[in-house]
Specification:
The complex is a heterodimer of chains A (159) and B (194). Chain A is of the alpha/beta class and 159 residues long. Chain A has 5 helices and 6 strands; from the N terminus they run αβαββαβαββα. In chain B, α6 runs antiparallel to α7. Classes of the chains: A alpha/beta (159), B alpha/beta (194).
Chain lengths: 159, 194
């Protein structure tokens, strides 16, 4: 009942879009707009060190001291980059979202290399899809009862 | 049918306010969007933290010189305060938006429908439905406390009906009164937690 295919996370994660910690918030926002993503993985010396969201960039840029230059991404990023293993269960991921009140986490392969970003929105979409499927199954159960097929015509295993 | 449980207080900003003021307000209220008003207090747009990022931060626009009106989304869709559940969700679906302001007859914002609130509401209802369908909760030791108290009350009513004039029953009457009193206190303790 609580089993949970590990491939879920692989299928739901998106390819990470990165930005260097030395980039300005404006440069990061350009990348974010160009790639149509809500967050960027911040890298330093090639290593992922944190995550920065559209909201983080907005607050850092617009609430900076008057007359000062736009800040760089490094100090703005949420650190460390919280991650789950690509073979972890969906439950591991959602518990991490819940525990840290975050909506995006990194996904790492068995070698610790970042291979994706998993968002709470994509998990929600997947769960919503499953719920709709189950609702359909319940609806079909009654439909089939109303218009029964002749005995012996069941097609087990054909789907 | 009005669903007040999904309405948030709506936070507004004027069209001529600076984007710094907008960001400050979003941060202070811990929200991601503001309804933009014209001089008459009518809702004319909505501005999100993402709008600010992609239309202002991206082009390095000055936080104090840039007005909210120049970065907001103009294609505002609103709902009347008495819009029902279906209208709310279908509009979000059609428009591909996660927030819709509720307005009065003069177009002034009075609330905000947010997808996140709906998700929480649906999750809570799902949890309730799932719980009632769980046989271990229905018959087993994990039955909800409120239901156990109901059972106990029914049991007492049914099996401890006593004739109070019978001196042999005095003890039972005392026990029964004490039990009913205990049930009452447990109930009020539970409703106090809720």
């Amino acid at each position: 009942m609580t089993q949970d295919a590990g491939s879920d996370i692989r299928a739901l994660a998106s390819t990470p879009v990165t930005v260097d910690a030395s980039a300005t918030v404006a440069e990061a926002a350009q990348e974010l707009g160009k790639q149509h993503v809500g967050s960027l993985v911040v890298v330093e010396a090639g290593e992922p060190i944190g995550l920065v969201t559209d909201r983080d960039l907005t607050m850092a840029a617009l609430l900076r001291p008057e007359g000062s230059a736009p800040p760089t991404v490094g100090p703005v990023a949420s650190r460390p980059l919280l991650s789950v293993d690509v073979d972890a269960s969906l439950v591991d991921a959602t518990l991490l979202f819940q525990r840290h009140c975050i909506r995006r986490i990194g996904v790492k392969d068995s070698g610790g290399v970042l291979v994706g970003v998993l968002s709470a929105d994509s998990v929600l979409q997947a769960l919503g899809g499953r719920l709709a499927d189950i609702a359909q199954a319940l609806a079909r159960e009654f439909d089939q009862e109303r218009s029964p097929q002749p005995a012996g015509s069941a097609t087990f295993g054909s789907e | 049918m009005k669903h007040v449980h999904n309405e948030q207080d709506v936070v507004c900003v004027t069209r001529s306010a600076s984007i710094r003021e907008a960001a400050r307000s979003m941060k202070a209220h811990e929200i991601g969007s503001l309804v933009v008003l014209d001089d008459d207090g009518k809702a004319v747009g909505i501005v999100t933290d993402r709008d600010l990022c992609l239309r202002a931060v991206r082009w390095d626009r000055d936080p104090d010189e840039t007005q909210v009106g120049s970065v907001m989304s103009n294609d505002l869709r609103t709902l009347a305060v008495d819009a029902d559940t279906d209208e709310q969700i279908q509009l979000m679906r059609r428009m591909g938006v996660r927030r819709v302001p509720l307005v009065d007859e003069a177009g002034r914002p009075v609330g905000l429908i947010a997808a996140d609130d709906w998700i929480r509401w649906i999750a809570a209802r799902l949890d309730e439905v799932a719980t009632t369908a769980d046989p271990s909760l229905r018959h087993g030791p994990l039955r909800p406390p409120g239901a156990l108290l109901d059972d106990l009350q029914v049991h007492l009513d049914r099996h401890l009906e006593v004739r109070e004039e019978d001196p042999m029953q005095t003890r039972t009457v005392t026990d029964r009164t004490a039990l009913l009193d205990a049930i009452e206190r447990l109930r009020s303790a539970m409703s106090g937690q809720a």
